[in-house]
């Protein structure tokens, strides 16, 4: 097959303890999935989960130096558990959902909050607030069979050594299995899909030069410096 230009390389994420890499198909994100974060964003706790997407090439595997994005004066961090799927399907049941999980990771959903808010005010799409270049740093994947239990695991983020976000995965409004099942009612999931599962309270603004350290206990750690 001949292309009019050389296709871009496949976006992939390293797997802990393996030379193999996880090829990424799509990146889905859950909006507002921790009660305290729902409250700080002024939303309704009774709302079902909703979803948005980032392009695969917005990922920054293993973090490191991340460019501060243009067109914003209010860049905010959201630390999240990320789920990597090795099986797909539509209308997946909650009971079967975790069988589709290959691995977990730590991710940051960077948000140009000022652009997002302006889009919300005008009922416009969120893409320019969420789906920009380098907006999704991610750690190496931890295979699911090595993760004993996630329910009480701590999820946390600090900026320049000062704690900003900390909670447990038990505080998620919708569990990993429920998120997968609900998303599969809207799209057919497939191997290579990543799902960012929401963030705890404490999101705040970051600036150039800030270093962010985040972790999910039992899954991994991630460090990012804005440059």
Automatic annotation (TrEMBL):
Recorded superkingdom: Bacteria
Boundaries of every Fumarylacetoacetase-like C-terminal domain copy: 27-226
GO molecular function: hydrolase activity
Protein name per the record: Fumarylacetoacetate hydrolase family protein
Keyword list, A-Z: Hydrolase, Metal-binding
Pfam families: FAA_hydrolase (PF01557)
Organism phylogeny: Bacteria, Pseudomonadati, Pseudomonadota, Betaproteobacteria, Rhodocyclales
InterPro entries for this protein: Fumarylacetoacetase-like_C, Fumarylacetoacetase_C_sf
